[in-house]
Amino acid sequence: MRIIDGGITAAKGFLATGAHIGIKKIKKDLSLLYSEQPANVAGMFTQNIVRAAPVIRNEEMVKSKKKIKGIVSISGNANACTGKKGILDNQKMAEIYAETLGISPDEVLTASTGIIGKEMPMCIIEEGVKKIVPQLKRDRQSSKEAAAGIITTDTFLKEVAVELELGGKTVTIGAMAKGSGMIQPNMATVLAFLATDAVISQELLQKALSDAVDITYNMISVDGAMSTNDMALLLANGMAENEPFTEDSEDYKRFKDAILYINQKLSIQVVHDGEGASKLIAAAVTGARTKEDARKLAKTIINDNLVKTAMYGEDANWGRILAAMGGSGGFFQPERVGIAFQNEKGYLQLMEEGHPIPFDEGKALEILAERDIIIHIYLHDGVEEAIAWGCDLGHEYIRINGEYRLRT
Amino acid sequence: MRIIDGGITAAKGFLATGAHIGIKKIKKDLSLLYSEQPANVAGMFTQNIVRAAPVIRNEEMVKSKKKIKGIVSISGNANACTGKKGILDNQKMAEIYAETLGISPDEVLTASTGIIGKEMPMCIIEEGVKKIVPQLKRDRQSSKEAAAGIITTDTFLKEVAVELELGGKTVTIGAMAKGSGMIQPNMATVLAFLATDAVISQELLQKALSDAVDITYNMISVDGAMSTNDMALLLANGMAENEPFTEDSEDYKRFKDAILYINQKLSIQVVHDGEGASKLIAAAVTGARTKEDARKLAKTIINDNLVKTAMYGEDANWGRILAAMGGSGGFFQPERVGIAFQNEKGYLQLMEEGHPIPFDEGKALEILAERDIIIHIYLHDGVEEAIAWGCDLGHEYIRINGEYRLRT
Lengths: 408, 408
Known about the structure:
With about 400 residues, the first copy, chain A, is of the alpha+beta class. The first copy, chain A, has helices at about 55-65, 85-100, 120-130, 140-150, 200-215, 250-270, 290-305, 305-310, 320-325, 360-370, 395-400, 405, and strands spanning about 1-5, 15-20, 30-45, 70-75, 110-115, 160-165, 170-180, 190-195, 220, 230-235, 280-290, 340-345, 345-350, 355, 370-380, 385-390.
């Protein structure tokens, strides 16, 4: 597998573009993706009971296993909590894009992100989509514009692309994502779009995506809030013309690893861009009795406001970590726990067998002053492990989220 | 029931005092309570797996149903995550207090709150307790000093006292509490001490306390963090000489209501003093299918960082409320939900049957500018209800928790 410079248009046959059409005040708010050939599609969706109109429609469409040719996404309006009108508006958005392209609305998926409970500006969307469709292109600039069209409070574009060999053919996977707030474990979070030219069945495509989402987007958290709109979509249009492969083949293993790599990169980028985050915190739990215990503990640590503010304050307050673990519902025995901090500045053990170890405050501060910090948790209860990624909680989060609606 | 001016020494036979003995830099850090007569004791304790030494010891002692005569509490050191040494130090603290009073260590409960994982300064405690015991008194000043001795980041003392008639005798209940951070639903949070001169069996005393804690301390949250140290203790020394009463008596009902009233007052004071809080938010869920659904939904709303920052920003962003509900795990049907804000400035409906209602932003701002805000959630799924109390999340929380250890 080779990492290449590229985004959502990296794979053969995928065109994209993005533009400002007037849903938001200034920033880009429309993102279009088009596949020259019908593509298999896999999807993962938010587990929130309150689901935005595009989530409801896309999930149905993915379940139907029909091939699709395009995705129309807008940002600035979530089209969530908008009732029947929102469902109709979302369908209409698909129809507008389909009609402009000369394809069926059943070949179009939709996405939206932004303010909840606001009626969709359908005139702006209709006019904008019709005007922007002719700009669909397959070049680096267009993929960047498409990536810009889906972001909201993000501070940088999130794109990844890789190439790999499958059955002697070069297969490419390109991807883009948005997300910097309302990011929470336990579902497919953020908007993530992946497009590949691989030949692959819908079933295997779904499996590769589901398995990856489970240990990437489902293990990150910026603020513990579960979004109404988030989804990951993976399209495969077959234009690389590789030989079809089965689940037990080496080709599938390579493909699956590439999908995991991309989702890992995107999800860590999302946390890095966490609203107001100044640090990326990884909680790595090892020696757990069960996988579920390891996941619960890791996720609780990165979601705990007291741990998050301690990280922001560069304070080696491991007591808050242990207290958070104790309230997580995950099994462990306090008297066996080891805790350590690690990053490029070094490794510092703070606790062993449930006892605090005297440590050098200067060394702790040196490690905690860095942007990336790993919190190691050693349980000595079994062999299972899990990693969750989160960020600190500082003044910038308050600034961004205390004023969100007024600024957008 | 009459509300009276008083604290932990309001009831007959209870003496108290508080002082600075040097565990903390400047503020009071020792709190002593003494009952002239042996008292029945009821207790509720944190559900965190990681439990401070006093929690472990007190729970055993409450279970044994033996009568007690005193409580020694220190603040500034949690004596949590301190291993076997912490257990021994805690026992030693009880012994020091008992010896100075000339009673048995088995008649002394202990409490501690503050930094986790720090060794107890036993010399300071020994010297301090011996010096301060002679100051035990039953007057208003002493109860205030005792209340001051248990607080950490609190900005005001938390005291309540009431009188009521039981079987022709006047019974008094006095109480004090501490707590402003690490407050989370689902357990007996904070340190709360209640002392009454009522004659009441240990079993009824425990029932009155347990029932009250369930709908008071267990329904408040400042930051979603579960403490290692929190407990509520209720002492009854019988010095009011009322006739004993049974569970189905009017006397028990009056007593239970008084205990509930006190715990409600104390728990709301704790939230009011939430670390960095500028607003008190109540989430009142009605029409739920089950009590458990109502509790889950109410608690999730007041714990959601996006809801909390919106309240801080005085932003009527009801979408975040609905999104938080959707991720709570509590059952509801989004298309039936009504949401309204209310306080002394008025009542404002924002959503009805799952649809947003156009509302006056000026009116919303007028309501949200106040310190107390009720968020009404109408589910129309059943008849169960629950209220949870929380606070907003603003810059002050970050300032307090980002620098905690360095300041203490």
